[in-house]
Structures are given as structure tokens and as C-alpha cells.
């Protein structure tokens, strides 16, 4: 089915990406039109609006990785806040919707808040993105100075750390420096594929508990 974007209706086939020339005002109108709908996803870059309708695998992989992060934070006894879906927008600069985001160092700044004031409140400490359709670009997070971005693509994890000159790929997460996150994810996805997600997360918890 063809993509449909009108004042009355927005529809994209699963897996489709639509790039449109547009202003910040155009982006805001589309966001308002979408309302509480989480599909399609929408992104704004100066002069460009992107719409993407995720495939089922997109949400499944995002949820598994987010569950792994929660298990690891609980194991380390770290407090956190987590959000999904969420729209991060800086007027006329960027509008983006990460698959999942975590406040770890700065969780107290957003705890209990119904709205986050971007540019005033801190950005998330960790953002998770699933890139199935080449929709994701780590540089979209530069204006927000998100400390760490995980992009999962083609069954592999890339970890980016923020530096003043831009993002750089690193081997280990600053939040889990002694853990091999890629190895943990490979095992969790294997178990989830062979059995189910709940078994994968349960086995991860049991393995970590045995190490204490």
C-alpha cells in the first residue's frame, strides 16, 4: 500500500520510511495530528521530516534490550527512570523519538515528572535505538548531548559515547564498564529466539545472582 499523508490521515506500510521537506511548524502539525499514536514514528531535522512505520521485530528487540538494561541496573543497585515512547524536541533544531531512554545519573531531575522541558531539564543518560530500516543516525542526539547511545543493527550492538567533538564508538558502556554488553545481548536474543523473552530475562537474573 502507498504511503498516505494528508491533514486527515497518516498511513505507512510496515517497514516504510518517508522523507518530506518541511519546516519546524510542519513537524509540529504532524506531531499534533498523530496525537498519542506511537506509529508512525516521526523525526525532524532542519528542513526535513522523516516518518517511519516500524516492523514487529523493531519493538521486540527494543523491549529485550531495555529489559536487559533494567536487570543490569537492578543488579548494580542503581536507581533509574525509564521512558518509552517519548518525544525529544528542541524548537527548530531537532525532534526525535528514541525507542527507549534511561535516566541513570540524572534520574532525580525527572522523577515524577509528566513532562520534560528539553533544553532545561537534563537529557537522558542512555538512549537505545533499533535500526532496522536505516532511519537512525547517532548525530541526531548531538544537540541533546546524550552521554551514551546504543544502536542495535543487524544483530549487533554499537555503543557511542558523547564527546565535545561528536560521538565516538567505544567497547564498553560507561554505566556497565565491567560487563560485556554485546555478549549478554547475544545470549539473551539466542534464548529469546529458542524459547521466549521471559525465559531469557529470567536466566540473566539467575546468572547475575549466582555471581554475587
UniProtKB/TrEMBL annotation:
Ranges of residues in domain Putative restriction endonuclease: 24-174
One GO MF term attached to the UniProt entry: endonuclease activity
Keywords for this protein: Endonuclease, Hydrolase, Nuclease
Keyword Hydrolase listed: yes
Pfam family, one: Uma2
Protein name: Uma2 family endonuclease
Organism whose genome encodes this protein: Floridaenema evergladense BLCC-F167
